[in-house]
Each structure stands twice: as C-alpha cells, then as structure tokens.
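Fold tokens
===========
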Amino acid sequence: MTAGATSRRAASSVWNRVRQLAWLGWPGWLSLLWVMALVVLSVLAPVLPFERGQNLYRIRRAPGWPNLLGTDNRGVDMLVGVIDGARTSLLVGVLGALIGVTVGGVVGLVVGYRRGVYDRVGLVVLDVFAAFPAYIAAVTATLLFERSVRTIVLILGVLSIPTFARVARATTLPFADRDFVLAARMAGARHRRVMWRDLLPNVAVPIVSYSLVAVGVIVSVEGALSFIGSGVPEGVQSWGKMIAAGQERVRESPHLTLVPAAVLLVTVLALNTVAERCNQRWLFGGPAPRPVGSPRRRPRRERAGTPPTDVRGERRGLVVDDLHTWIDSPFGPVRAVNGVSLELRPGEMTALVGESGSGKTMLGRSLLGLIGAPLVPGLPGRLQLGDVDLRSLDDRGLDRIRGRRVAMVLQDPMTSLDPVQRIGRQITEPVRVHLGIGRAEAREHAVRLLESVGVPDARRRLRSYPHELSGGLRQRVAIAIALSCDPDVLIADEPTSALDVTVQAQLLDLLDELRRERRVAVLLITHDLGIVAGRADQVLVMYAGRIVERGSAQDVLARPRMPYTRALLDAVPRADAPSHRRLAAIAGAPPVLVGDPPGCAFAPRCGLANDHCRIERPPLEPGPDGSGRAAACWRPID
C-alpha cells in the first residue's frame, strides 16, 4: 500500500469518527466547544501572555476594541479575569463532582444491588443528609473551617454525595432485577465482580451525565458562596468574586457584573446540554459496536491454567428432598416452594410443567440459591449434588458451584445477556473465573462452544452485542454460556417461550442432543406439556408450590391421573381439532400462596372435587402399579 493510500485511509477513518458525533446536534456541538474552550484556556492561563497588572488609564472601560469584554475596577481586561475565574470555578466544580460521584456512586451502586439491610440503612442516612439544605450547610461549614480552595472542594464534594448516591441507587435498581445479573450470579460471579463488571457499565452513562450537571451546580454554589464572602479566599479569582466585586458599580458599569454572570450561566447551560445529549444517545440509542476492521488491542500475557477438556468424567445428579422456599412478606410467608422432592439423573431430561405462578421458576432458582427476596429461615430441605450438600454451603461456596457444576438458562435471552458486553466476553468470563485459563484459550473454547450449539460464523459472532443477534441466536448463546464450564446439571427456565415454533423445535432438539452426548442432567421448566412430548424422560407437574403428579413422560402424557394435568393437556391447541372451536382453558385462577389453606389447592377449580378434597390435603403417593408414577389427588382419573 502506498503512502498516499495510507494517508487517505487514515483521513477517511478520522472523518468517519467525526461523523459519528453528529448525534450531538448543533446545540450539543456549541455546548461542547464552549466547555472545551474554557478547559483549555483554564489550563493554559498561567502561560498565556496576558497583562494582569493594574492600569489606571483604562479603569472600568465598556466592552469594545481592544477590550472586547471591557475592563474591571483595576483596569485589567475582563477576559483575563474570566479565564482566571474559570480556572478556579471549574476546578472546584470538577473536583467536587469527582468526590461526589466516587463516594456517592459506590454507595448507591451497593445499596441498589444488595438491597435488604443495606438499602434500608442507606436510605435512612441519605434522608438525614437530605433533610438539611445543602446551601445552608455549605455556608455553615465555610464559617467553621479555614477559607481555602481545598476546603470549598471538600465541603461541596461531601454535600453532593447524598444526591449522587440517590441517582446511582435509582439507576441501579432496575438493572439489579435484570436476568443478566442473575445469570452472572448463576455463573459463579461474586457480588463485587457483578457490580464492577455487569452493573457499572450499564449505570455509568446516567451517572456520568449527572456528573456534568453536578459540575454546573457546584460551580453555581461556589459562585453564590464567593458572592457573599464565604467562598474562595482573597487573592484567588472566581466568577462569584467577580460578580461581587462589580455589584457596587452595577449602575454605571453593568458589564462588571453581567460578563461573569453571563459566562457562569452559559457554562451551566452548556454542561446541562451535553449531559442531556449523552443521555438521549446512550440510553435510547444503544451502544455502538466497534467496526469489524478496527485494530484490536494487543493481548495480555496468558495465565497458566487448565483448559476445558472434552473428556468428561463421572457425572453427578441432583437430589432434592422436601425443599421449602418461603418468602417473608408483610402478609405472612409466601409458600413459593412447599415440600418438593425430585431427582435429576445424569443423561436424563426432566420436564417441570405448570401454569404461570405455580412456583416453577422459584424452584429452579432455589436450587442455585438465587432468591433475591428475604426468606423465612430454618425451613427443612436437602439439596444433594453428588457428595456435596448445597444447603450447607455459604454464598462463597455456592459461587464455586454455580456455573461450574450447576448452570441455568434463563427465559428471555435479551434480558439475560448483558447489553453492553460483547458475546465473547460473556462466554469466556465463566471459564476464566472457574478454570483460570488464559484469554486466548478461553476465546478458542468459546468459538467451539458456539459452533456446538449451531451458531454460524462463530468467530465473528464473538464481537457482536446481544442486540445484533436474533432471538434464536441469543438463546443459543445463552445455552453456550451455561455449557461453558461443562456442568453436571443444566436448568432451562422456559428457554423457548419468546421464540417461534420453528426455533422452539430447533432449541429443544439441541437440548436433547446435548444431554445425550454430554450426559448432562437437564431440568426443563415450561408451561406447555406439548413441547416435552418425545424429549423428556420424566415429567413433574407443579401446582401451588407442590408437585401434584410425577411419572415418565409417556405415562403422564398418555394417561394423566391428576385432573390438573388433564386440564393442562386439554389446553394445548391441536391441529386436528375442528375449526372455529373455542379453545379450552382452566376455569378460575391459581391460588394465592400466602398462608396454608386446608385441602387440595386445585379443589376450587376442579370439577371432580368433593368435601374430602376441600378439607384434607392429598399426599403425593405412588400408584398401585409400581411404575413410579405418583399423583396428589383423592379422586384420580382412572
């Protein structure tokens, strides 16, 4: 390539990057240029050839040539005073906002993510600080301490911490409930890693945008303090001091006050405009991926570690015995999971079916200890993964199990994948965390994983963001992440509910193939009995937090014994049904899981229920044929 072609290509690349900033618009561009000009002039102020000495022959001249902004009470050009004042005012604003965003941002991020006691205590402390007006507190503090720029920065920075904490908390709360945070915890990431690697990139834009607004607010407060004589000390120039110095001559020389006041106003408006444009771009426009042809950073030296291997040893199943998950609420415990027992065997697919609200997802999350709500302590239950009792492990011990030995595929891949992280990073992170291998090896392993789950052009897809993939490809990526550490147990929580029927069949076939080839124990959570036909080895029917029927897929689907199971099967649309026929639906609504009402939970909706069903709860008992089938019903279907 010739030198001319290289220079043209470089110029074209620079021009393309400049055009990408068109989203600022002309107000944003003017605002950005104004702020940049002030910053540059402030930094270069000490070396600029300005005349700062007193000149009695040009005291208080009106704006004109050669003094475009006029002169002050000492005959010094007002432009020099504005630049010197910008040096102090912007320094106070930037450093004060930096203190606020550093401390307040961390506090808001922690309380918004951890919630519980952290949130309650944090809100009380923030409310106490917010109850006292910040300006009055700043005036009081400046009277108690020595007047200096450092004191002003510390006072205004500390007073901005509660506001930053509230902004960070409010921004974090919606993301803390997103599935990609749960997916990171499921992959074994610790709380600190989740907050730093998953939450912070998502909440950084609104926090940084508010930081620009806060710089303007702090500059205004510093100007107000200097105006009343409580701001920066004598000998230090600021816009507030310039306004105060010109108020005595405001009638005969209004430019002494109007010039610094106008500069202060325009600066605050410019900062607000840039912050607003950033919010509009990055919160509603989505992240911009790096072009495919852009240069990559030089990889770091790889760490020594054990790479994933295709040689799989003995698989471990998961045994669940009398598991209870009761959520504490003001109205009493919510019995989301109430005495569930099951066994997930290696190489078998177990389908957990039931209506929405029956407790299926809560059961899946209970197996991994990922219930975010406060739980009722001291409940019975055993979770045995091989020779490890999961109920005896603390949070750090579960981090070594999640993603490594038990993995989970969540329902909506658009929310379970981090929107600001590339696909490659999300696949390689569990491998690097659990297996400690180098980046290059983890990347090659990610390519093999994507190819194994049917993602075309896998190496290029590693550089894609989730929003660049279709729903089916996103779900395949989620499955690849779950399989990245070769787990023993895979929990798939309604992985096909948001997809069309063709993609549903492909993904179900993929799960079936993976559990046969890898001998993974699969728990498939779904509300549709029809999609598990021919794929599941065992079917568990769940209602009101309990297992109400259990058996092989062939027996349960062909000859259901529980009326609820029969109703679920009748609700599946059939291609051979007569046209214009009303679709079957289960009458009534699922019960509220607060309290412990007597009798069978399905009795109010069951056409076969009698008084015995409404008074005494039926146990889950095996049938007389010895086939392992069981149904919790006093009047089972023969």
User: Anything to note?
Assistant: The chain is about 50% helix and 10% strand. Confidence is low (pLDDT under 50) at residues 283-312. The CA atoms of residues 66 and 77 lie 9 Å apart.
